[in-house]
Every structure is written in C-alpha cells, then in structure tokens.
Amino acid sequence: MSASASWIARDAAAVWHPFTQHADWTGDDPTVVARAEGPWLWDVDGRRYLDGVSSLWTTTLGHGHPGVNAAIADQLAKLDHATFLGASHTPGIELSETLIALAPKGDDPDLTKVFYAGDGSSAVEAALKIAYQYSTQTGHPRPKFVRLNHAYHGDTLGAVAVGGHDLFHQAYKPLLLETVGIESPGDRALGADRLTTSISHLRSVMHEHGDQVCAIIVEPMIQGAAGMLDYDAAFLREARKLAYTYGALLIFDEVATGIGRTGRMWAAEHAGVVPDLLTCGKGVTGGYLPLSAVLAAEHVYEAFLTRPGDLAPRTFFHGHTYTANPLCCAAALANLRVMGEQDVVARADRLGERLGKLLEPVAAKDAVTEVRRLGTMIGVEVAPDGDRTGFRVCRAARDRGVWLRPLGDTVVVMPPLTLGDDEADLLVEALDAAIDEVLG
Question: According to the model, what pLDDT value does residue 168 have?
Fold first, then answer.
C-alpha cells in the first residue's frame, strides 16, 4: 500500500471534510499534503504540485517564507496568547495601525478602527451585527440587509443569510435573517445590460425598503464563489450613493478580494469608494494562520460609545476566545511588511496581466465558455460535458503537476502573488492540456 493510500484510509475512518461529499471522496484519489515551500506542495508520496489556488485563496508570498516564519517564532518566544477582551497586546495594536494605514482612502468615510475575528465568515458575522446594532443606536432598528444574487460571504448563519448561492444555502433558509436579493451586475445571464439592470433593481429595492435596510453588502468587483463573476465599478459607486441617501451602511466583503488579489490592495480601490465596514481575512496573514478583521468607519465606532442618559449600554457584545491572537497578528504584520518591501501588490497586478495574456489561447477554445479575470482572481468556465466536468479538468491538471479546484464547471486559477514566470507558464500549460484531455 502506498503512503497516500494508507493516509487516505486513516482519513476516511476519522475525518469529516468541509464542502466534501464523502460518498465519493475516497474514489476521487484525494491528495494528502505533507509539506510545502514557495508555490509548491508535496504529497506524502513525494509528488510535487504547483499550488494554483493559493491553498484556497490565502497564500500571498508562497509557503514557508523565511520572514514570516521568523516573525512567528519571535512572537512565540514572547507571548503565545493573551485575551483581547478588555485588554490588549502589542502585535494587535501594531497590526491595527498597519491595516488602518493601508485601508482604502476617500473623501468620506475614513476607516479608523479594527475589530478582529477568526476567519472570513466570522468577520462577516461581526459586520452584520455591527450594522444592525448601529441602526438601533442611531435611530430605529432596521432588520433588513440588501445582498447580491449569487453572493457568497461564508457559512455561519448570518453570512449564509446574505449569501445567494442556493447549492450551499438552501437547506438553512428557515433559520436566516431577512434579506432582499438584487440582480448581480456580474450575472452573464442578464446579458450585456447586466450593469444597468442591477443598478435599476438596487434603486427600486432601496426605494421600497430603504428605511428598513441597515446595510448593503457586496463582494466588490468580483463574486468569487459564484464562479469569478467580475463586474463594472460603476455599481459600487451607485451602491455608495444609495447607502448614503437612505441612511444604510455599505459593507464590502474583501475576505477574498483584499490584500492584493485584484491587482490593488483592496478591490474597493478600482471604484474609488470607501465602505462603512470592510471585512478582510484569507491573505491578511499570508495564508499562515486564521485571522480576519472588520475595518470600521469612525462614525460607526462612535455609535457604540455610551453617552450620558443612555438607558442601555452601547457595547458591542461580540468576540471570541482567540480574538487577535498574537501569533496570528505577528504573521499578518510580517506578511504585510514583506508585501510592502517587495511591492507585491504591483507584482500581483503584473502577474494577473501575464496570466491573462497566457490564457488568451485557452479562452479561444470551443470547449471554454469564458475566461473571467480581475488581477490574479481568474475563472475559466468550461463547457459541461457529462458530470463534474470542472472536477475532471482539475484532476487532469493535477496529473500534470498543478493543483487547481473547480467551482462547478469553472476552474479557479488564483496562485500566490509572487509566482514566477516559469511557474505561470507551467500553470497555464497544464490547464490547457487538461482541457484538451477532458473535452477534446
């Protein structure tokens, strides 16, 4: 029995994986990763794979970066963990200062405070609760959220409520918050007028429900789990105007789109607007440790300060045991420092352009429906041919030394931001050959 077979047998006996149908899993010949370095993964049998999806969209600098490794080890020697509930620590303070300095800038509002969470879903959950409590403390309770169709914001119940991905969320609808979905500006089914249709729908919804809407929440510029549905920045500018007009908050979920992924530090920068609340996660620690955050505008933060005569405390009663864990904060600080020193955001922009150019022959194939890209966030939608076409393409790419994951029949390409030219060539060559193998 090979090492992989042995480990898979042990896994099947003990593990329940996320987003995994275990009736099929062992038959799919899953990969058991043993180690990683740079953009590469090695399985327990010693086979090497290019990490073409940044280990679920998180890795910025590649695996095992010496600067981040050293920062975590240095922090471990000083402080492993201390509560952030009513207390503080130096890496948490320093990271807050760094995130605020890097936050998208505009005329109004400024993002001036950082609230920490553990992962993308928990950051979104915190943002939703902040938005609702803000409405109760600045006027009257507004129980509704406006969201995009096809949205994905995570898997906790609040995040599911503002999602629009029925495959993931249908089973939980009886448990969810009250939301109003609008047509997505990235939905190709709406045709060439999708931007106009979406903006018109948003205006109509806000006209009808505006005084009951506490927040509009969107993935700015591109909907990731929907299959990399990119859209026009004009939608975000209109959402900003409408949120102001109706007194709602605007939430940008940048868990996937932030930290350089779109060729800007934040996807919001493509539109030149600033939300009232911005969530980040995934790449903030460079893929090392679980950490996320909500960046909040000053006017939102001030609504949570108790005032003379208040009958109830305005405290935000939310948090968790490992909020702002010092090791996570140290990893994030090191990752963001290296990104600045090595101009990684500009490198990511160039990498995205290079991948886009390399993918032009792929996009021209009859077997490819569309290639969608914003920065290094890329979706290659293949024409369905039987069951699990996207999965079969990814499997064929893995046989060529490139690890990819599908979203239905859309193959996601999202490598580390520091990927070299030779590795970029390998990635696209393997995908190209895989599509030919599966779809002829």
Answer: 81
